[in-house]
From TrEMBL:
Keywords: Transcription
InterPro entries recorded: ASX/ASX-like, Asxl_HARE-HTH
GO molecular function: chromatin binding
GO cellular component, one term: PR-DUB complex
Organism from which the protein derives: Eptatretus burgeri (Inshore hagfish)
This protein's name: HTH HARE-type domain-containing protein
Limits of the HTH HARE-type domain: 1-59
Entry annotated with the keyword Transcription: yes
Domain of life: Eukaryota
GO terms for biological process, alphabetical: animal organ morphogenesis; positive regulation of transcription by RNA polymerase II
Pfam families hit by this protein: HARE-HTH
Length: 65
């Protein structure tokens, strides 16, 4: 999913109130995705060849439950 798609789902499903977090929720989300995709234990990874597209790592969803 692209960053805009992820942000849309967060807002639509009211997963987190991001209205007060910053003036640029998309910028904050982008920084979070970037940081979490670079760490070995990060829950996201960048899709090769696609700019700004991220996916959850396999096994992450079951580990979060």
């Amino acid at each position: 999913m692209s960053q805009k798609d992820i942000l849309h789902v967060i807002q639509k499903d009211k997963l987190k109130d991001i209205s007060q977090t910053s003036q640029s929720p998309l910028g904050t989300l982008g920084a979070t995705l970037y940081t979490n995709s670079r760490a070995m234990g990060g829950i996201f990874y960048k899709v090769p060849g696609k700019q700004g597209v991220y996916r959850l790592r396999v096994g992450t969803v079951s580990a979060l439950k």
